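Q: Can I see a sequence and its folded structure?
A: Here is a first one.
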Amino acid sequence: MKKRIAMVLICALAGTSMIACGKKTEPINTDNTQATEQVQPAEENKESDKDPVSTSAPDISFASVKVEGYDYYVGEAQCLQITDDKHPELKVAVDEYFDGVVKVFNTGVEEMNEQAKQQNDEMGDSENTIKYSENITIDIKRRDNKLLSFVLNDYTFMGGAHGGGSYTGVNFDVATGKQITLDDLGDSEAIRQTSKQYILDTIANSSEQARGNLYSDDIIDYKQVIEELFSNGNQPEFYLDTVGITFIFQQYDIAPYAAGTISVTVPYSQYEGINDRYTPLPDSNYAFQLSNAGIDSRIDFNGDGQLDTISVINTWDEEADKNYVVLRVNGEDLKNETGNGSWYTGYFIHNDQGNFVLLANDGISMDLYDVSKGIKAKSHMDTTLSVKEVTESGITLGEYTYNENNIVWSNEQQIGFDFK
């Protein structure tokens, strides 16, 4: 039996108060800049005479819409709101964007519920009802006085062994509310060609184990796919972070599902004539997750004009019949034996104290290494918690459970890099 969708569209435009796509929450701090911090614009900005430049990062909060009352479907869409009065154009643009997200989200509800009903009818198992689900979440990538960049993760489960996600990169000019395209960054075709070659070269120079995670046969070859994705005026989804332009390859594009979502960041320094309106302020602090597939990240984290190379590789030595995690920094390897089935996720942190890599084996342990000059052990912690977020200033840990295919966090704790 059909039931109504218990949700409210977020659709507040200029001149009206925010209805919100859920209960309005207090402003929160996310990525690189504190919400109340005043950030001065760069001294020289070629676009400053043409367009305004904001002096502060926007305050933000999250809300959500939920689908309730269906027998075979559940869903939730997270939305972003601008909560200060200093960025009116951005506020309108973000409201309009998420109004569109929620409208599209709504249109698929009836169809997915009906498909799930048909699948359950065919299975004839009344004790094990399958519910389809869709969950849209937001991952903030950059928030400063120039840009608000984030990734929408649209995860859908329609039966089977697992669901699947699609990723959309979204980039807003903080001062004008304009949604940024490659044309706003410079010569878009030159950017595509530079990006494509950089990505191919980075993968080619990554470890054999990393390349082994990608498609490379007569049916699908990652090199050919990358060539095609950057052809005919197109490119993969992208976002602008503090390091460069990060291109996202969707699941199954260049690797099997088990390899996870693969993205590669091309540093701003690799582009000629890129619009400095959108490049970050000098000496900005940042943190990001390293490739789960072991592909190299190349960044100038020592400020000497040369790209440093860093990767984390989970590998199995067939001869020794043992699992290892390898931290590789500028050709130097730190190799540690791990337990059977263990998996380490790597995070790079650049802050005022130096350059660090966090290796996290969720629910078991964490290790922090100083990689400014070589690889030096700094901190160790045994923990039953998992890493929810890593920023340039600390780590958020917590416990997570799956509630109808949606991750729910609890028992959250913030700790510093001294693990206290």
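Q: Show me another, different protein.
A: A second, unrelated one:
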Amino acid sequence: MSIVRHIVLAALALLVVAGCIRENRDDCSGDVYLHFIYNGDGDTDIFPDKIECVGMYVYSLDNSSFHSEYTFDKNDLAELQGTHLMLPPGNWRLVLWGNAAERSMLDKNWGTGHIAEPGYFDGSNSYSGTDSLYFSTIDITVPETLVDVNETCYFESSHIKMYIKLDGFADMVDVSTGECAEIVLYHEGSAVYTDFTNTPSEDVCEVIPEIFPDPDDPDAYVLFYNVFRFDEDDPDSKIVLKFKDGRDLYTVSLKDFIDRYNIRVNDRNEVIIPIRIFSTGTGVNVVDWDIVNVDPGFE
């Protein structure tokens, strides 16, 4: 009697699985295992050094719609540099953003997905530099047989780091607040957003990063900020230093600066552009800034 009962139960289980696959696929899901890797500009995985959190957005390619989203924090990624999720049979697109935090907001709708600073979405048009963003996307198919899917998500950079030192501007400090009282730095020609293919927008904006006193140099200020990727030959990417009353003080063409100091941008993931702007008392000069030994505490 016991043997007959087991046979019946096994047959019923097979019927349930068959019904799941053939009739109502919404009631069954396949296992999807993802591994996250970021090699930067080499062959060694440096994901743990560069990416502290990941937001993942899942889209159905079968009906062109948003399906679900997941967030993995630093602890999650330390435990498992990837994830396991369940998806119904079908064709799926996964879009992943690394390090999207307080300086990032998303439009996650199918076909219009993009990421930008909050000022873009709230209409304030206030931009001070984006997060140190990384991007990955992958298309997968979960088969009707529910065979496990194992894939690797390779990340790439979505930002460029700007390290700027303003040297010899001590006379412009507000001694009561310690802030730079007379000048403002504008990064002109920065993409407003990057879409869900990691393509920067043609629409541009002015980024106005915060200026900090240099803790190691009483005559200097420093700026550490990120912008979305830009082409090294873009003539519209500029650093403009102005007095707060609107008068121009100095303009740096990033194209010319990149050419002069042989900085690689287009074929690199990890890009740092270090600029030293210093006042001579009678004028302003610009050189590259040796940041090998600089630890700005900024990612």
